[in-house]
Specification:
Elements: E1 2-4, H1 7-18, H2 23-27, E2 40-42, H3 61-71, H4 135-138, H5 140-144, H6 153-161, H7 166-174, H8 181-192, H9 201-206, H10 216-229, E3 243-244, H11 255-258, H12 263-267, E4 276-277, H13 299-308, H14 333-344, H15 349-352
Parallel strand pairs: 1-2
Antiparallel strand pairs: 3-4
Helix pairs in contact: 3-7, 3-8, 10-14
Amino acid sequence: MRLHLPLSRFRAKVLFLLGSTFALSCASEETEPVTPSEFVLTAPANLGTAVPFPQRNPFTREGVLLGKKLFYDPILSGNNQISCASCHQPEKAFSDGRALTTAGASRKPLLRHAPALQNLAWMQGWFWDGGAKDLESLALGPLTHEDEMAQNLKELVLELQNHVEYPAQFKAAFGTDSITSALIARALAQFQRTLITGNSAYDRHVRKEPNATLNNQELRGLALVRQQCAPCHATDSFTDQSYRNNGLAQTFSEEHEQIAWGRGRITHRPEDIGKYKVPTLRNIMVTAPYMHDGCFETLQQVLDHYTHGIVPSPTLDPTFLRTDGTLGLTLTQKEKVDILSFLNTLTDWEFLQNPAHAPLP
């Protein structure tokens, strides 16, 4: 894997490579298999260095194309009706616009809001509680969960092995005739690492591109975000990738396998109970509703919560403790409007409308 930085190359490469069809992979049924070709991932310079990719999953063109096909294919679900894209839609930054989705196999509301999928190559720890250590393990949870895709992995492998196209495509991507659940997860991980957003008005502004200066209100909002929000939404990733309790609840139920414990459910440490991963602010205007349970429909409600809705609990993040002992951030309504104006500049329309991320025809 090589990571290059110029933005122009980033846009051209991903559009070209992901916009391709599976002609090469399908052709392997008639020709000798070829060695998978390296995928050169390029990205905007202001995003910094990506997390090193696992050596067990080399980044290849064929692997990315296979992962994209699998992402949109309902064959991954037990009833062959639900795909990854059912809850992760490109135009919503790969979120789904629902508080708690009912798009899963059981049609029951899930217990957590479907998170956006963007800039995952820069992230560490996945799911709201960080329960997945890498992208390769991320997919297996939703695939097998009875309320999500309700798939039996052995049956899925058999179905893919008997498919008219997939055996050749797996061989083109991984050089083996044997399809496994691990290879399915690796292909999905490769595609998801290409979901890079970095060409918003804000990005063009910080890169000092021509005619990309933010207006005065947006600049005031940026200053407020850096002052008031940066402890959690840090750097140009707009998340410090920490786990925090932001004052949504006073107590945390042990029901549903302690799902309300958040990070504490994974670490079993009392000090982590009620903490959830800080999401990015990128494309936040299109990823409503907000929070791990989708409890706020608008960003105005989010900001109002942070100024006068914080609920105390033993693990509440100290960021929300004012010097006078009261709880919340100190923001006027005018300042909130300025922040909302700035958050608009984090919308990357090129990412949201990128044909490279759309399903293959």
